[in-house]
């Protein structure tokens, strides 16, 4: 009888929605410092919640979320999602949709992954940047403070401070031809020359510079360089 009661309670819990469960020994990655219409897994999350290795966070169209994790901070505006993992010396944030703004005090503190591409601070200096997923193969990167290192399939480029770029991963023949005509941001990113066997893994274009979302997180970093 007791087992039947427990089984019934378990079914009711599952029917009510997914509740994050963390086994003993799972590392805590950070804490939510601000949340509005945001979810941890499928459950609503509020300020003060602890985030663990492997947790996913999402925001509604009018939501937002801020998270402190080690020597870095993350900001998710509306309609965005991220899954967080522990990484040597910091956190790996897998952007699953929308936009992510991060600040970091060390190069190892933050590694943003999107479609197997990686964006990291280029040095151990206070860094602020925004990454947006435009489509499955297209992303936009904006740097507010200090440079970023962008890498994909063994190729790496430095994204300088104060710049705004659109990056196309695995460009098609048409995209590579368009890149040659449009003069991409980096001269060696023009795609294959005549007789070249391997196309570049990605192409980088300049875009119009826009304001980075999440003014509060940026203001705190710029006013306090030693505080991510």
Keywords:
Jelly Rolls; disordered N terminus; 16-stranded mixed sheet; 228 residues; 16 strands; mainly beta; disordered C terminus; 3 helices; globular
List the helices and strands and how they pair.
Elements: H1 2-15, E1 28-40, E2 43-44, E3 50-52, E4 56-69, E5 72-76, E6 81-87, E7 90-97, E8 99-104, E9 110-114, E10 117-121, E11 127-133, E12 138-145, E13 148-152, E14 155-159, E15 164-169, H2 173-182, E16 202-206, H3 215-223
Parallel strand pairs: 7-9
Antiparallel strand pairs: 1-2, 1-3, 1-4, 4-5, 4-6, 5-8, 6-7, 8-11, 9-10, 10-13, 11-12, 12-15, 13-14, 15-16
Question: Would you give an account of this structure?
Answer:
The structure is a single chain. With 228 residues, this protein is mainly beta. 14% of the residues lie in helices and 46% in strands. It has one domain: Jelly Rolls (Sandwich). The chain has a 16-stranded mixed β-sheet that branches. A hairpin with a 2-residue loop joins strand 6 and strand 7 (90-97).
